[in-house]
Amino acid sequence: MSSQRSTTTTALVVTGAVVLGGVIAYAAYFDYKRRNDIQFRKQLRKEHKKVKRAKTERAAAATAATTVSDQEITAALERIRKEPLPTTNQDREQYFTKHVADGEMMSVQGPAMYFEAALSFYRGLRVYPVPVELVMIYQKTLPEPIFNILMKLTSLDVSPSAAGAGRGAGTTTEIPIIFEDGIDDDGASSSAEWDRVNTGANSPSSSVHIS
Questions:
Q1: Pairwise CA distance, residues 195 & 11, whole Å
Q2: What is the pLDDT of residues 129-140, one digit of tens each?
Q3: Which 3-state string (H, E, C) describes 19-63?
Q4: 10 Å Cβ neighbour count for 7?
């Protein structure tokens, strides 16, 4: 038994030594090529530049995808405001569930879909009985770029000049709550009409559920 263990230990030591020797040999070969082979050095520099360029392009694409002008947001808001709102509590609940689910699905598809995701989350906010609670959930669970777009939408929507076609840049995001026509401003009563929405305001859940 002892002999068996000794043989196993020896085999492991030998294997480890062989692997380590191979790594050292490759490192020595790599260093030699880097120092003495001009073509090898050129290839290394080319690969390094390629990797760096790819990372820069990905970062630029992500930044561009999450940068939305006030004009784009205003135009999107005008389109949404023209959409008919559900009139019954059941229809509002279904409308809310659908658009929040759409927003969650788009938000995981990357920065290119952040704007559309924010629009879907905003549609859900339009009919939610207690907007301030939903804004708190959004703030905790949404990626920051999506939440920022959402806040610009709400800020524009409560602005006296939001409907004006000539609204310029420089919008603020200080007003996070809206109430659409036809929606009860009494948060408690609206919530009761929806059979009490499970807001999850105290939970770090990544989604919004309705009980």
A1: 69
A2: 999 999 999 999
A3: HHHHHHHHHHHHHHHHHHCHHHHHHHHHHHHHHHHHHHHHHHHHH
A4: 10
The length of the chain is: 211
Q: How far is CA 114 from CA 25, 88, 152, 194, in A?
A: 49, 30, 14, 29
Mean pLDDT, residues 92-105? 96
In single-letter form, the type of residue at position 92 comes to R
pLDDT in tens, 35-72: 787 886 777 688 877 777 766 666 655 565 557 888 89
Q: Amino acid identity, residue 42?
A: K
Residue 201's contacts (CB-CB under 8 Å, 6 or more residues apart) are 133, 136, 137
Both structure tokens of 198: 């499970």
Q: What is the per-residue pLDDT for 194?
A: 60
- Inter-CA distances, 123 with 50, 112, 160, 211, Å: 42, 19, 20, 19
Whether 149 and 73 have beta carbons less than 8 Å apart is answered as yes
Confidence at residue 84, expressed as pLDDT on a 0 to 100 scale? 93
Extents of the domains making up the chain: 2-66, 70-193
